[in-house]
Amino acid sequence: MKRKRENEIILKEKEVKDFQKTKFGFEGELFKKKQELVKPIQDKIYNAIKKMATDQSYAVVFDKSSDLIMLYANPKYDKSDDILNALGYKVGDKETSGGGAPKSGSQGTTSPKSGNPPVKDAPPSDQDTNIRPK
């Protein structure tokens, strides 16, 4: 009887953890809804920053409200390819594919050159750069 009751408790605890994960976890409903509601606001803010930066010839715009985050960078100052060349990598063809991850089967980098708003963990990109060792 005691063993059966312990197993029921363990089962209920597991069900609660699964429920919490589906509602409040990284890919839970709360996270997805927050993303859905915040994205249009981020788009508006980023587009306003980009317009102001290009109109007033700013090279870089930083967010100083928290960590030092680069919100906009003029693409002409992007030295990523030069650094990769100095490290011994050959930078391949650049394709304007609308952003996203590198094509499957190839390594790649992205650079902040798009009109999409930045995400704190990853810079926006509208170009995939295939990198191959020389």
Report the major sheet.
Answer: 3 strands, antiparallel
Radius of gyration, Cα only, in angstroms? 22 Å
Count of separate DSSP helical elements: 3
Helix content range: 40-55%
Number of separate domains: 1
Mean pLDDT: 75
Q: Hey, roughly how much beta strand do the residues contain?
A: 15-25%
Short overview:
By secondary structure, this protein is an alpha+beta fold.
Structural notes for this entry:
With 134 residues, the chain is α+β, with helices and mostly antiparallel strands. It has one domain (2-133). The chain contains 3 helices and 5 strands. The strands form 2 sheets. It has a 3-stranded antiparallel sheet with strand order 3-5-4, with helices on one face. The protein has a two-stranded antiparallel sheet with strand order 1-2. A hairpin with a 5-residue loop joins strand 1 and strand 2.
Question: Topology, please?
Answer:
Layout: H1 2-24, H2 29-55, E1 60-63, E2 69-73, H3 80-86, E3 89-96, E4 108-109, E5 127-133
Antiparallel strand pairs: 1-2, 3-5, 4-5
Keywords:
19% strand; single chain; alpha+beta; 3 helices; 3-stranded antiparallel β-sheet; 134 residues; elongated; two-stranded antiparallel ribbon
